[in-house]
Amino acid sequence: xxxINVASGVLTEFDNEDPPLYAIFSHRWGPKxxxxxxxxxxxxxxxxxxGHEKILKLRETALADxxxxxxxxxxxxxxxxxxELSEAINSMFTWYRNAAKCYALLSDxxxxxxxxxxxxxxxxxxxxxxxxxxxxxxxxxxxxxDHIGTKTYHARAIREITGIPExxxxxxxxxxxWTVAQKLSWAxxxxxxxxxxxxxxxxxxxxxxxxxxxxEGHKAFKRLQIEILxxxxxxxxxxxxPPSRLVNIPHEVLAYSPDEFAGCSDMEPNLLRAASQTExxxxxxxx
Length: 287
Description:
By secondary structure, the protein is an alpha/beta fold. The chain has helices at about 40-45, 50-65, 75, 80-100, 130-135, 155-160, 165-170, 180-185, 195-200, 220-230, and strands at about 1-5, 10-15, 25, 70, 100-105, 140, 145-150. Pfam families: DUF8212, HET.
């Protein structure tokens, strides 16, 4: 795990199992040429970009909060290495969960004091779901890095935006206690640049690790469902509904995308098996 020292700006690698306390960053990427990659940051390139300015502001904000280290996906993952990229994606939920603080920059919101933050595109992105759920607390910032509020403070409004129960946002009830179908409903309608990332961005939500195969398209989400079926005894994963245009056409057992779970957010708990979230344990075969 690579972290940036907020005082010196030095990028340092730490053991995934024992990093120092750090703050973590959630944001929407700007134009690719404006973001500062791992290689560019280490070589001191592209200092005149908005991506570099973003890292400077992150360091400044974290330093003011007494943080010593920060993590940002643009500069802290060497995407030239497929092994490192795969490890990062499979570890990312854990990294957000273990962060001492999470800052979420809503770069399309220019006034922290009105309700414009509720319409930010941040809420419609695939990766930001785990970045909202995993940390104990998330602090939202506008384009000027002014404080909008926190996940817990705005829990009621966030529930209306995302469909995620307030009890989950407050941390009173773990997201793991909700059914597979309900959790997949929170991902309905969210967008990613790569089709595969609609599945990969959900790995941590189900505590699943699987190989990344960019180029497989929608097969990634079917692979994820198979992994879920092997891990949890939860029949709600079969409660998805096909798009209206296909409702009279026989469909497969597995859903095409998280969008087919959109109608599962309000499922009555008493219609679901009490043990639906039990993780399957594979016993050793008898000797």
